[in-house]
Amino acid sequence: MTQQQDPEQSGAWLVVGLGNPGPAYAGHRHNIGYLVADELASRMGSPFRSHKSGRADVVEGRLSIGGPRVVLARPRAYMNELGGPVKALATFYKVSPDHVIAIHDELDIAFGTLRIKLGGGDNGHNGLRSMRSSLGTGDFHRVRAGIGRPPGRQDVADFVLSNYSTVERKELPFQVSDAADAIETLITDGLEKTQQRFNS
């Protein structure tokens, strides 16, 4: 047995891609969290598998050699109900809220840009609201992937639940890759360095 390390160095991280399950939602702006989780799973070299709770698909492993254990999760619940599965996973893996990272779409940030922060409100995002309610706190990390505001008078709900434009789809892989890089940096180097590098 090795001596217990500082939890900031050795504690497991729970990285949650926010989205709606099922193929009908796969290409929607609201599902960028799933896309980033898929990219991280690819980097970890492992497919998603059903968690024993039956409420999420997970990948367990490490994003870097010698790095902390990481649990990637895609809840099997719609946005407004995903807090329950996230809470169940956090309890199962003994992850505190400050070691939870939510990846989600953000209307108030231009498409293609990122913002990383710890804590805050839900800004009308049903997934964040559900997580705050179930975890009992908003003090978890957020990797906010900008999708911009809807054009003209398009309803916000219709906008987030619609596919990316043709132009955006060409740029989307770069945003997904950057968001995955930001998560790796957040876990290995901490919040301040990640914000300095990625907050545009």
- Largest sheet, if any? 7 strands, mixed
Structural class: alpha/beta
Alpha-carbon Rg, integer: 16 Å
Distance between the termini: 43 Å
Write the H/E string, N to C.
HEHEEEHEEHEHHH
Helix content range:
25-40%
Which runs of at least 5 residues are low in confidence (pLDDT < 50)?
A: 1-10
Q: What is the percentage of strand-forming residues? A: 15-25%
Principal-axes shape call? globular
Mean pLDDT: 91
How many helical elements? 7
Record the strand order, biggest sheet.
Answer: 2-3-4-1-5-7-6
| Total number of strands | 7
Brief sketch in words of this structure:
The protein is 37% helix and 18% strand.
Written overview of the protein:
Helices cover 37% and strands 18% of the residues. It is of the alpha/beta class and 200 residues long. It starts with 6 loop residues before the first helix and ends with a helix. The protein is globular and about 45 Å long.
